[in-house]
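comment on this one:
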Amino acid sequence: MGKKVAVIEGDGVGPELTRAALSVMQASGAPVEYIVCPAGAEWWEKHGGNSLIPPESWKAMEGAEACFKGATVTPGGAGSPRSVAVSIRQRFDLYANVRPIRTYPNTPRPLGEADFLCVREATEGLYSGLETRINDDVLIAMRRITRSSCLRVAKFAFAEARKRQWGAVVAIHKSNILKETDGAFLQECHRAAQDYKGIALEEMHVDNCAQQMLKNPQIFNRKVLLSTNLFMDILSEEASALVGSIGLIPAGNYGAKYAMFEPAHGAAPKYKGQDKVNPTASILCGAMLLDYLKFTKQAQAIVEATEKTISDGVVTYDLKGSAKTSQMAETIVKRLRKR
């Protein structure tokens, strides 16, 4: 029985990367119906309103099992709508953002091999959007942290470590300064750890973690790194440099009954229409999506075809190659069809 996936093509290079990913997902043979719907800054600039997502797109997402979101632009400035990703995460309660960090054959690895998972609480923290203006000089952003959200994302992180047969979850925090909020986060991490005997809970201050990621990144290999929303958003971007390009990093956003998949990189409007941006992150998002929908064989086939394509040097400029977006995607499609 086929399943439905809502597809937001995105802004900037988003549409061309999304089309590349769709061609690969379709070539995998997974019985999925892809429903394209508008959202993003480019749509909003034409239509206005208080949201980057129109009602018909919400309806399409609600009628689907999952969402594939291309890279989007978030307008800046007071009064502008919140991002597409944050809106979807909060609407569907997608509390766990997951970014795998892994080096690929024959690609730059400036500080050696990397293989770990970044897990981030994705519904609260500073991304709650709770801000207030006291006066013209004083403006306050509120970092909303709840024990229940900390506990469920900690359990998610430990479950991921167990699934991968990895030995530790690293709880990243600043509880020496944020004594209440990060104190609660750490307490709930310890509470979750009680149900996962054999998986160690390590603690690390966020500033030290940022340093160690550049000084000694191998200490994180085969571990799940866990933190609150903004901390892990920043750290996972830093981590992408370890594998040579953020163009290799997919992301999944998971809730109890829904999931949304998106590349970790932005929309890069300056490259729009140039057929040059790395499609790997978007294509691997497709693999994550199919795996979530239980099309495990098709998902693994995409991962293997993508790895072989990268290993053979059919890569884009960010990985020191000369292939175009479309050429890289076409090579992966051909490999899938030869299975």
Remarks:
- The longest helix spans residues 147-164.
- The chain has eleven helices and twelve strands.
- The mean pLDDT is 95.
